Amino acid sequence: MRNERNGNSRDILRRWCSGQSNALAIPERRKFRRVHGLQLPLHPQQVTGWIVILIIVVNTFAILTPLLEPNLRPVFSIVIAAIFLTHICSHLTVLLLDPADPRVRSQPTNKVLPEFDRQKHSHVIENGRCHLCNITTESKRTKHCSICNKCIVRFDHHCKWLNNCIGARNYRAFLVCLISAILASLFVAGLSVTELSFSLFTDRFASPSMENNTTDPVIPFIAPASDTTLIIAISAIGILSAIVAILLLHLCFFHGYIACLGLTTYEYVRNKREKNSVAAAVAIAAAATAAAAAAAAAASTAASTASGTATSAVTTTAATAPTSVATTTVTTVAENASTITIQR
Ligand SMILES: [Zn+2]
Ligand SMILES: [Zn+2]
């Protein structure tokens, strides 16, 4: 009975926080298209992101800003509150804006999409026609997201942190969300370092009101905490914010880079995969050619003791076989590369 109850709890948790595994995919997710990022099932990374945001916001206003000098506190509080608010608004915008093709959005959300049948079609989108959404796409950059089960205009990527696709319609909001998160995490990390520096060099925190001001309504909240507790708490917030800032800065630079190239994330990854496949094919071909040369040389040496006719036959066979293997290998890898390219 208890095991059954635990099993039900796990099922409920799995429904709420499902991963990307097809084995765990619930029927709702495969039959219908996802409309927005708050639609169930939530993704574990999405929930983790919310928890990190909550920890940083709460600790900023509960610990970091109260430790500031009273005359600095309002300015810093307003600035960081504005950055947090911008991030939360853009975060919600990216989550709730449906980046699907307008013709997909005009269809009812409870429309059951067919399962993709590889026996009938090689790809989901062929000649500009999506076999699942039953629409004709306007651009080659429109891709069918298998997780959201819908066609996305100028598909960039499916973001697990936002549990939504990023496409033409919500890309700007995504950039605002990303930049505001970087600003917030850098601001909080900087504030943490400043507070720790004060405690290290002056043996007390920045706010003089920590010692004897009992009229300040903000200070009593953190006054009972010892300096050691505050140092540990501030260090933890600073490290968490710094890690978030580093990861997001990397992502931001990447998006700046692909913007300069005029590519989406999907196109960049696809091109890179294609280049890797071609490079692998060239390496295999070079190895096969070297093997052919070695075999030909060996055959030539062996045949030098035999008759002239036999020498010619052996050499030709030995040289041709590895070369044809190399050619076949190159062709196969190149075909695989093109399959990867147009798989969606
Ligand atoms: Zn589609
Ligand atoms: Zn998606």
From TrEMBL:
It is an enzyme of class 2 (transferase). PANTHER family: PALMITOYLTRANSFERASE (PTHR22883:SF203), ZINC FINGER DHHC DOMAIN CONTAINING PROTEIN (PTHR22883). Its main location: membrane. It catalyses: L-cysteinyl-[protein] + hexadecanoyl-CoA = S-hexadecanoyl-L-cysteinyl-[protein] + CoA. Belongs to the DHHC palmitoyltransferase family. It is found in: Membrane. InterPro entries: Palmitoyltrfase_DHHC, PFA4/ZDH16/20/ERF2-like. GO terms for cellular component: endoplasmic reticulum; Golgi apparatus; membrane. One of its GO terms (biological process) is protein targeting to membrane. It holds the Pfam family DHHC. One of its GO terms (molecular function) is protein-cysteine S-palmitoyltransferase activity. Residues 129-271 form the Palmitoyltransferase DHHC domain. The DHHC domain is required for palmitoyltransferase activity. Its EC number is 2.3.1.225. It comes from the Eukaryota. Keywords: Acyltransferase, Membrane, Transferase, Transmembrane, Transmembrane helix. The chain crosses the membrane at residues 47-68, 74-97, 173-193, 230-257, 278-299. This is Palmitoyltransferase. It is a multi-pass membrane protein. The keyword Transmembrane helix applies.
